[in-house]
Amino acid sequence: MTRPGYVRVANDLGASEQAVELAEDHYLAALGLFVLCLGYCDRQLTDGHITTRAMSRAVAHGAHCADAIAELERVGFLEVDADGWRIAHYLDWQRSRAEIEAASESARNAAHTRWSNAKGNAGRNAGRNAKEIEEIDRKTLAACAPDLPASGSDGTPGPAKPKCPACFGTGICDDGDGIGPYACSCTIQKPVSAR
Q: What whole-number distance in Å separates Cα of residue 159 and Cα of residue 145?
C-alpha cells in the first residue's frame, strides 16, 4: 500500500547523540538512508520494519548502501530483525499503522457526512444563486447603460451591449448618435462601417 504523507524528523537529527557517532566518511549516506527508511515505513505502513528485499529495491534502489546500513546498525538507528531491520523507537515519533488507518476512516466518514446531502443542496443553491446573479446583472446593466430600452414587462433592461474598452462604459466618449456597438457609443471603438 502506497500513500502520500510526511514523516517526523527531528530538526537536530544531524547533531543527535547517535548521529555524531557515525563514521565521518559515511555520515551523509547513513543519515540520508535513515530518512529514506522512515519514508518507506510510513508509506507502506510497516510500523518501522524494513525487509532486506525492501531495503535493496524500494528504499535504496540501485545504491550500494552496505556501509551506511552497517553504520546505522552500529550507532543504533537500525536494529537487526529476523528478515531485515527495525527502526529503533519508530513508534515514539511516527504514527502507527492503526493510527493512520483510523485517521483515514475518520476522514472518509466526515467526507461522506459532508457530501451525502450535496445533491439536495445543489438544487437549492443553484436556484438561489441564479436569482442573485440575475439581480446583480440587472442592476449593473441599469447603472452602466441607463439609455438601453427595457425588454421585459417588469422594466428590466434588455441584453447588454459590450462595454467600450476605451471608456469602460462610462459614456464619456459618447458622440451622441446612440448607434455604436458599445453601450457608450464610443466613436473610437465603432466598426469602420458604423462611423
A: 11
Chain centre to alpha carbon of residue 86? 33
The residue out of 50, 69, 97 marking a domain boundary is: 97
**Closest Cα to residue 37, out of 11, 15, 65, 14?**
65
Taking only the tens place, the pLDDT of each residue in 131-180 is 777 777 667 766 666 665 555 555 555 555 555 655 655 555 544 555 54
Indicate whether 74 belongs to any domain: yes
Buried residues in 121-149 as b, exposed as e (16+ CB within 10 A) = eeeeeeeeeeeeeeeeebeebeebbeebe
User: Tens digit of pLDDT for each residue in 2-50?
Assistant: 677 899 999 999 999 999 999 999 999 999 999 999 999 999 999 999 9
Q: How confident is the model at residue 195, as a pLDDT?
A: 46
Q: What is the pTM of this model?
A: 0.58
Q: What is the DSSP letter of 154?
A: T
Rounded Cα–Cα distance for residues 26 and 130 (Å) = 66
The answer to whether residues 104 and 50 touch, using CB atoms and an 8 Å cutoff, is no
Decide if 150 contacts 156 (C-beta within 8 A). Answer: yes
Is position 131 within any domain? no
If you search the block for the grid coordinates 443542496, which residue do you land on?
Answer: 121
Q: Phi/psi at 169 (nearest 5 deg)?
A: 80, 15
